[in-house]
Amino acid sequence: MDIVLPTIPAGVLVLLGLLAPYVQALIQRPTWSPTVKKVVAVAVALVLTGIVLWFYYVYTGDTVPAWPALALLAIVVAQASYALFTKRTATAVENATSRTLTVHESPDTFPRR
């Protein structure tokens, strides 16, 4: 069985997959557990694949039978992009877009006895 990927959706998916860590950084928060962050990473890659395939279908009218391979490609490219290139800047985006809650102590916090 040969898996043939259409060139345009695969190329667009790779280019967008390189930027996927920034989209993920806008969604997630630094306080989330690593498991939740991994689920968000996979979900972002799958949604990205769906969007690319939808645009390809709207533009050409052709369906892509190798969509699982494209989904896997999106996951691999997004994770490789994060690990190799965008980790520091994506983390900075995540921290910059997350609200921080600062708790200040007031005299009424600890009542006197």
Beta-strand proportion: under 5%
Which H/E pattern describes the elements?
HHH
Alpha-beta content class: mainly alpha
Find the count of extended strands (DSSP E, 2+ residues).
0
Low-confidence stretches: none
3D shape? elongated
The average pLDDT is: 87
Radius of gyration: 20 Å
Main sheet makeup: none
Ends apart, CA distance between termini? 79 Å
Number of helices: 3
Classify the helix fraction into a percent range: 55-70%
Explain the overall architecture:
This protein has three helices and no strands. By secondary structure, the chain is mainly alpha-helical. Helix 1 (7-27) runs parallel beside helix 3.
What can be said about this structure in brief?
The chain has 113 residues and is an all-alpha fold. The protein has helices at residues 7-27, 34-60, 67-97.
List keywords for this structure.
113 residues, 3 helices, mainly alpha
Helices and strands, with pairings:
Elements: H1 7-27, H2 34-60, H3 67-97
Helix pairs in contact: 1-2, 1-3, 2-3
